[in-house]
Amino acid sequence: MTVNMWATSTLVNIEIDRYAAALMPRLRTVTPDPDLRLLSALADPTRLAIVRQLVADAETCACDFTACCDVGQPTVSHHLRVLREAGVVTSQRRGQWIYYRLAGDVSRRLAILARDLVPGGLIALGDQRRVSDQRHGSTAATPAVAEEIRPRA
Length: 153
Known about the structure:
Layout: H1 20-23, H2 34-42, H3 45-57, E1 60-61, H4 65-69, H5 73-85, E2 89-94, E3 97-102, H6 106-117, H7 125-136
Antiparallel strand pairs: 1-3, 2-3
């Protein structure tokens, strides 16, 4: 028995525009706002754990983050790249190892963001006492509620 393949073929009409997105390589969108990139980078629990590790140790090898984060090395590398692109960490290669540390201006950037988000800004310790005394009609010093955030030296 002979089968004629040409007689049983089916013509399929595929609209190329409909599938163009699938054929194009995916490009990451990079937000131009550095504050948004900073906050987005810190919003992930794994990246926040990495930052906390760097606060505790000042400098850490990339291979040591797997212990604090409970994720594999490829995932740690991805999160370190996001933190580096957001300006949260800096890196230095020493032979085959890469050591990370917090960028010098991260605490200042976060402090500025915090000041901008608090209505009226943050109040210095001395001013807070005066405001509290005026509200309560007291002349005695009261405990401070808020302190001005100063960047680390």
